[in-house]
Write a structure and sequence with these properties.
332 residues; alpha/beta; TIM Barrel; 11 helices; globular; binds S-adenosylmethionine; binds iron/sulfur cluster
Length: 332
């Protein structure tokens, strides 16, 4: 299963809801996602059984990694039941969840019991005021740290901590995060602020390049590059030379990695997107609900992947920015 540029299909990111309890200005700015925002009605959202069928078809075409995301996935009622369905698909080598961590403390145990193996928690700052500015004033740091601790206790390791870096907003806290998570076994990953969607008012000046992030950390704690774990890994890895662990930087803006991009994204209403920056998906919900067989579903997915030519980050230009899908819809 190769796309038009020779890239295999290896990862499926599954968004289970378009709703979120945070309003991170870089993803779901409050001005747009206020009380009367028309989130999708329940009938348009895939059921767990529909998600499972699509995931099985994707695994049949070569997917090895499944990641549950959103919106905020822990807002989806009964999420552990979906984890249980996905965990028993033969051929899945990695099943993880990306969450803002706000509700994680209450869920870590049931998620692990359902078969979740790893979790990624987003945490943009350890400073309450900065963190609130980064999440639309929805939460201080404490509930997220409690979620991280609960995940640790449940053995959902290695934990990844994602921090989106926006210049002038939270970049002064990069070193605090490095200090906090050095020596814990968790992998702290800094993500360059991306021009996903059309709603966050992205400007290149807001991006702190990965090289600068690594240099700032390296000035206090020397680091050296590590080889990728596998071809197509999104993060550039570094280790602290004093043996205190690993960090990653996701340089999607300054060092695009489309050449090795093996990721497809399933939105909560059943569209498959072959790029984070796509303007259009392929509808699988319609065919599913019209009675498509597993083979038909697999053919539809294969045809979509086979026709793929996406390399947005490598081609990033002002002309291509209009009309892109929003991040909360397909989950990053
Ligand atoms: N709500 C969950 C969370 O925040 O972890 C899962 C969904 S969120 C869309 C997935 C990841 O995308 C988060 O780590 C978030 O920080 C990241 N993200 C969202 N908007 C972004 C942007 N404009 N640039 C870079 N990363 C972004
Ligand atoms: Fe919600 Fe995650 Fe987007 Fe923040 S990044 S608004 S937590 S979906
Ligand atoms: Fe993959 Fe699209 Fe991101 Fe390139 S821009 S790495 S093709 S998701």
């Amino acid at each position: 299963m190769k796309d038009r540029l020779g890239r295999g299909l290896r990862d499926l990111r599954i968004s289970v809801t378009d709703r979120c309890n945070f309003r991170c200005p870089y993803c779901m700015p409050e001005e747009v996602f206020h009380g009367s925002y028309p989130f999708l009605p329940k009938a348009q959202i895939l059921t767990f059984e529909e998600v499972e069928r699509i995931a099985r078809a994707a695994v049949g075409l070569g997917v090895k990694k499944l990641r549950i995301t959103g919106g905020e996935p822990l807002l989806r009622a009964d999420l552990p039941a979906l984890v249980a369905l996905l965990a028993r698909i033969t051929g899945v080598e990695d099943l993880s969840l990306t969450t803002n961590g706000f509700l994680l403390a209450g869920y870590a145990a049931t998620l692990r019991e359902a078969g979740l193996r790893r979790v990624t928690v987003s945490l943009d700052s350890l400073d309450d005021a900065t963190f609130k500015a980064m999440n639309g004033r929805r939460s201080g740091v404490a509930p997220v740290l409690a979620g991280i601790e609960a995940a640790e206790r449940e053995g959902l390791r290695p934990l990844k901590i994602n921090c989106v870096v926006k210049r002038g907003m939270n970049d002064q806290g990069i070193l605090d995060l490095a200090r906090r998570f050095r020596g814990t076994g968790h992998i702290l990953r800094f993500i360059e602020y991306m021009d996903v969607g059309t709603l966050n008012g992205w400007r290149m000046d807001d991006v702190v390049p990965a090289k600068e992030i690594v240099a700032r950390i390296g000035a206090e704690f020397p680091v050296e590059p590590l080889d990728p774990n596998y071809a197509g890994e999104t993060a550039n890895r570094y280790r602290y030379t004093d043996g205190q662990g690993e960090i990653g930087v996701i340089a999607s803006v300054t060092q695009p990695f489309c050449g090795g991009c093996t990721r497809a994204r399933l939105s909560c209403d059943g569209q498959i997107y072959t790029c984070l920056f796509a303007s259009k998906g392929t509808d699988l919900r319609g065919p599913l609900r019209a009675g498509a067989t597993d083979a038909e579903l697999s053919d539809l997915l294969a045809g979509t992947w086979g026709a793929r030519t996406d390399r947005y980050s490598e081609e990033r230009t002002s002309q291509t920015r209009a009309g892109k899908v929003e991040m909360y819809h397909i989950g990053g």
